[in-house]
């Protein structure tokens, strides 16, 4: 409170109390608004800042140096050079020391021009990384995404100055063995490490890192590192006994490396593999030794069979999440083994496994009663009866996604609707046997459904949308390419779903102006190209994202 030009309250408020107020603020805009009350509050707000997220800039090194001076208590830094930032006026020296981070605006950079030397000046370099280490000595998490100018020298500087680092993401950085070795020698508390697309790294650097950080390391991600072999995984298996998560995408890893991890890292909970040279022998070892496994994702495996899944079903009783993508030699037998042995399964995704059919999913419906999320992509052999079993047995199902499942129709959707009444998300795309009957059943039974996507399903029309509008509290709706839908169905949605915030009606040939007059107040609508100017102007939607990629902004008028 100010009286006669004097502030009577602010001087008697202790810093600790004001900082506590900042801690209680639940949004960044509120935080930024309070920081502008006075210079003192601005300074305290800077002390309260613990996280910084930035993209590439005209002078990345200078930006990092400025942020390091202003925000001394930062513990988490995320730099992603796939993003570009527009520097506001207050970043310029002549603008004075004003609030920096609160004014950053991020957007995706679609095009970049100029020579490689010119572009190099836009990227964070070792000099900027050194300044970051000197300014943020309490750093806990550091993420450097596609910072192509950063080398081992900069990483070594960070490792030496930020020895308490716990999380390090180097995706797309061309760092080498010297940098990795420095992390291993200095950052003995490191728990989370991402080395995706670190093409300069070899076994030599990763071995030193594994030895140095082995006692604390819990998560490792490796992808497209052509110089890493089974030798690196053997080091991880020998020294990283507390490892809980491994994500591995490599054409150069064989059974030997996976065997070493399975035998040495018996606390493993998450395993994601895309390794075309790995066979049943390695995955059978996972089933034998990794008894705490909760998530298993297998992508593009061409050399393992149902024997692997049988071993997983026999040993990994705690498995909750299973993804099988493009695993051509798996059949119903393997899925049945998992369903029988892993009764705690809550998430299942089957993508392009063409030999898995109805009977395999039937076993899931009968055995995995806790299933809450089911995704079936390009599963031509899975029919209605499989989902009927899921509807009967999986009462806790909340999300169902079906894409290009040509044998699934209304009978399956009706069974899901009547049995899984807690369903919140339903996504169906190019399932041409699904029509009005199935979706009407969803509208009548699934009273908690908030997200519905029915794309390119030619048999679904206005009657289905009327039932949805009458029965479901939708927030998101996508009916792109459903040619039988028109004004009548969309009007029913507009009147029956007041909480709707996002609507995609692109590629609807029968949609006219009448429906648009009902769509008031929604935050985003994707429209068909034939909508007239009258239809757009009649609606009070804040933003229209046109199918051609244009944006039409229409303010609400009271």
TrEMBL record:
Residue ranges of every copy of the F-box domain listed in the record: 13-54
Pfam name, any one: DUF7885
GO BP of this protein: SCF-dependent proteasomal ubiquitin-dependent protein catabolic process
Annotated SMART domains: FBOX, LRR_CC
Gene Ontology annotations for the cellular component aspect, listed alphabetically: SCF ubiquitin ligase complex
SUPFAM superfamilies: F-box domain (SSF81383), RNI-like (SSF52047)
Protein name: F-box domain-containing protein
Biological classification of the source: Eukaryota, Viridiplantae, Streptophyta, Embryophyta, Tracheophyta
């Amino acid at each position: 409170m100010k009286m006669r030009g004097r502030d009577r309250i602010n001087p008697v408020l202790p810093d600790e109390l004001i900082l506590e107020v900042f801690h209680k603020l639940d949004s960044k805009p509120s935080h930024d608004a309070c920081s502008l009350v006075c210079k003192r509050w601005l300074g305290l707000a800077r002390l309260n800042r613990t996280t910084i997220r930035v993209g590439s800039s005209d002078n990345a090194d200078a930006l990092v140096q400025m942020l390091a001076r202003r925000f001394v208590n930062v513990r988490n830094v995320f730099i992603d050079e796939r993003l570009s930032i527009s520097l506001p006026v207050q970043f310029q020296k002549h603008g004075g020391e004003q609030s920096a981070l609160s004014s950053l605006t991020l957007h995706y950079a679609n095009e970049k021009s100029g020579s490689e030397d010119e572009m190099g000046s836009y990227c964070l370099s070792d000099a900027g990384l050194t300044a970051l280490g000197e300014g943020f000595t309490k750093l806990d998490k550091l993420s450097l995404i596609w910072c192509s100018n950063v080398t081992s020298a900069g990483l070594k500087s960070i490792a030496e100055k930020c020895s308490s680092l716990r999380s390090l993401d180097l995706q797309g950085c061309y760092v080498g063995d010297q940098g990795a070795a420095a992390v291993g020698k200095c950052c003995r508390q490191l728990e989370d490490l991402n080395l995706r697309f670190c093409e300069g790294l070899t076994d030599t650097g990763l071995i030193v890192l594994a030895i140095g950080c082995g006692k604390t390391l819990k998560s490792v991600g490796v992808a497209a590192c052509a110089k890493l072999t089974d030798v690196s995984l053997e080091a991880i298996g020998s020294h990283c006994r507390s490892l809980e998560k491994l994500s591995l995408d490599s054409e150069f890893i064989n059974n030997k490396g996976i065997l070493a991890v399975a035998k040495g890292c018996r606390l493993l909970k998450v395993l994601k593999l895309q390794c075309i040279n790995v066979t049943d022998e390695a995955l059978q070892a996972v089933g034998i030794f990794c008894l705490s496994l909760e998530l298993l994702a297998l992508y593009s495996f061409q050399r393992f069979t149902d024997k692997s899944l049988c071993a997983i079903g026999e040993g990994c009783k705690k498995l909750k999440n299973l993804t099988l993508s493009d695993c051509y030699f798996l059949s119903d037998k393997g899925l049945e083994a998992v369903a029988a042995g892993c009764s705690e399964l809550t998430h299942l995704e089957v993508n392009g496994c063409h030999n898995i059919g109805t009977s395999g999913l039937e076993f899931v419906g009968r055995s995995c009663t806790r299933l809450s999320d089911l995704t079936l992509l390009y599963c031509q052999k899975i029919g209605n009866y499989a989902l009927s079993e899921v509807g009967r047995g999986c009462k806790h199902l909340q999300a169902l996604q079906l894409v290009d499942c040509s044998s699934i129709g209304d009978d399956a959707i009706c069974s899901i609707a009547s049995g899984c009444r807690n369903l919140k998300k339903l996504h169906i795309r190019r399932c041409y046997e699904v029509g009005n009957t199935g979706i009407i059943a969803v509208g009548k039974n699934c009273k908690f459904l908030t997200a519905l996507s029915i794309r390119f399903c030619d048999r679904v029309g206005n009657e289905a949308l009327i039932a949805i509008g009458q029965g479901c509290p939708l927030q998101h709706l996508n009916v792109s390419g459903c040619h039988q839908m028109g004004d009548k169905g969309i009007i029913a949605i507009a009147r029956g779903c007041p909480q709707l915030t996002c609507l995609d009606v692109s590629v609807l040939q029968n949609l006219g102006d009448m429906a648009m007059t009902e769509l008031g107040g929604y935050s985003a609508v994707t429209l068909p190209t034939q909508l007239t100017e009258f239809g757009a102007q009649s609606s009070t939607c804040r933003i229209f994202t046109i199918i051609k990629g244009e944006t039409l902004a229409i303010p609400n008028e009271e």
